[in-house]
Known about the structure:
Layout: E1 10-14, H1 18-23, H2 29-49, E2 54-61, H3 69-93, E3 96-100, H4 108-121, E4 128-135, H5 137-151, E5 172-175, E6 194-197, H6 207-218, H7 228-238
Helix pairs in contact: 2-3, 3-4
The structure holds 3-methylbut-3-enyl trihydrogen diphosphate (2 copies) and magnesium ion (MG).
One 3-methylbut-3-enyl trihydrogen diphosphate binds at residues 15-20, 60, 64, 75, 177, 202.
Amino acid sequence: MENILNMPKHVTIIMDGNGRWAQSRGKERIFGHYEGAESVRACVEYAVEHKIPYLSLFAFSEENWNRPQAEVSELMSLMAKSIFDEMSTFARYNVRFMVLGNRAHLSDSLNRDIDMAMEKTASNTGLTLIVFLSYSGKWDIEQAAVKFAKAGAPEGRFQEFLVTSAIPDPDLLIRTSGEQRISNYLLWQCAYTEFYFTPVLWPDFRKDEFEAALIEYSNRQRRFGKTAEQLQNEDQQTK
Ligand code: IPE
Ligand code: IPE
Ligand code: MG
């Protein structure tokens, strides 16, 4: 492994391309989702091994409810199955598991499974793994706006009302499958996130691909509105 000098604190991934992966092999789309679950496992392991504090995954958008009913219910069963299958992994790696999104749209049974997994892992202190389920960025901003107004909170405190209030904004966003769009994901939170797009389909995205993204990230200069010269001076002062 290359020595990556500048590791992100929070990596988020739009896991895309499962359907195309399966269809290119003459299989049903669901095969791609199952194979994609293996990529999740690989990336979680990589994050644990390299002590990345936060890994979040876009698993299902609010718009994905508009897919054919059969695919939606297969995806929901896969989610429940994965939670049960991975409980031992969470314990072994000390992973804190969280689901964020519009939970009101999920079934009672899936909500119970999620609550169980979140409660059991709540005090784990290793990787925080966040799965965005039934999530959309516009929904998040709207629900936050309602709460913000009700609370009469002052300017500057808006982010406290987003569902992501307890986690840092992503440093790096990866999207697989060649699409170069954000598809209503973390709209507010990606204000200063570095984007990495790769043509690799999600079921083929394993540790080597993850590492390639991290190497590219570590070579980027994040300026947050300042000039490169200012950053150089600040860097010298801290040395
Ligand atoms: C990503 O893969 C998984 C979900 C959106 C649930 P897709 O199912 O979108 O795969 P493609 O984009 O059709 O290949
Ligand atoms: C984005 O993928 C959502 C997830 C990966 C969960 P989509 O496949 O739904 O995105 P679009 O429709 O191509 O933008
Ligand atoms: Mg897709």
